[in-house]
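Q: Structure tokens for this one, please.
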Amino acid sequence: MIKKFDTTTQEVLLELEKTQKEFWNISRTTAEFLYNFIVDAKSQSVVEVGTSNGYSGIWLGKALKQTGGKLMTIEFYDKRLDVAKENFEKCGVADIITPRKGDAATILEYLPEDFEIDFAFVDAQKAQYIKFFHLIAPHLKVGGYIACDNVLSHANKVQDFIDDINANPDYENVVLPLPAGLSLAKKLR
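A: Here is the predicted structure, written as tokens:
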């Protein structure tokens, strides 16, 4: 997979993987899954909640380069967002990524009414997954997906979200046994 990327991107990703625990990055396996999923789904409008140092955003951005799509990524901490922006530049995806600094719930709450999302990736404050879900849901297209990381590694913090999305007749959810556990829900109607 990574061999498809240019040398600079490969080097940046390998460096970022060394800081995975410090920056709470997703695993390489999860990153590859998301990349392939977005390419296969031909996603155009992707939102990421939790930019950190940009590791997952690079993978999402590279996938969107294949589909012609765009990414909006949200991060609360200035220093992390600055590092992410640098990494996006180095990896050639800055032109399709709109970084937003601030509280994710507030940013999502004030998205324009006509803002549409094909795919949402949530990897931020676990206790707020349910809130993020309800703020993303009105913008998620029918047939679109919301993916949430850490649903096995932080099961107690996300249980209300899992219960809520599993009980929602408008969504079909599965928890994939990727390293931290990934909830992947499709909007049915």
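A few notes: Helices lie at 7-17, 20-23, 28-41, 55-67, 78-90, 104-109, 129-136, 155-167. The mean pLDDT is 95.
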